[in-house]
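Chain entry —
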Amino acid sequence: MTMKRRGFRSDRREESLILDLRTTWVPTREAADRHIQILMECWANMPIDELGGRTPWEVGLTEEGRREVEAMLREQIIGRGPLLKEYLAQLEPLREPGRRYVEAYQKSGGLLNIFAERVTEADDDFWHQLVRERIEGVEFPDEEARARAWREIEGIWNETPSELFSNLTPAQVWAGGGGEETDLTWEFMERLREECGDRGYSSQGEMIRTCLLLLRTWQTIPQRALGGRTPAEVILEERDEI
């Protein structure tokens, strides 16, 4: 599937938001949609000159700030149709999380999850295990003790790598990426187009498996341009900083 998708990137020389139009190849519509979501989540964490060097996420925490972000998007995006609405939708929710990062279920999970299936709390065996073992059937002396137990398992869940998110923690998923993950995303998408775009596949399943194998191999190979680190290491480090 060859698609022209508009994606945001931050020009490192101008430190300004610009519209980036590239032709990319993706195996499924779901991967294309997640690609856009990844770029938007990264963009929300990148300082923008038009916002006084603040990130869209920081500015968008208030209603007035969100209107400012929307106004800037309307100036930057070509056209006023469905594309603008698509970008604005990716900014939800620009707000502080609760104790548990439940928003992780709605986030993209970043480049490492671009081919992953969408998940919900119902799919999260680890969370249900925590609730069964530490909440259900436990007799608490008072509501304060019960509330404390809930906070403890929420903290454990937030910081535990999950197979649902390609071994990212929910906290890392919720945080989103930044400039480095944006650059790595475009690097991988070019590699994907070159190595997988012109092949013949016997089924969609074979096509997705081939793309996933390429991603898992690429993300674990150290690169000189990354100071000897792997793409996966760079992505995780940036998300931890954010």
